[in-house]
Amino acid sequence: MKKGILKKTVAGITSGFLNGLFGSGGGVVAVMFLRNIIGDEKKAHASATLMILIMSTVSLIFYAIYGHVDWAMGFKFVPGGIIGAVLGTRFLKNMQSDKLKRLFGLVLVISGAVMFF
Q: Average pLDDT in the 88-117 region?
């Protein structure tokens, strides 16, 4: 198998597994893999969003089958999530790649600290 195909396969399986396990957590890993594969910070984040959409749809189907989805609560977050998504993509458009990388790292550190403690 070619190295590029193997890299993409490992990235996909790892991202998908973590997405299924954590619920969109695979997106974080997808960004890191895509940054390495694509080489462009903004394209990596945007492309990871496509991966997250598809992986999350598949995960949602299985979460629903297993009875783990609180539909009423989930839908309460949708309007704010849509607004946040629009704002985030507008910020991404104008943000320098090095600042985006640092901000992403900061969010990961804060998220990790909150989860750990």
A: 91
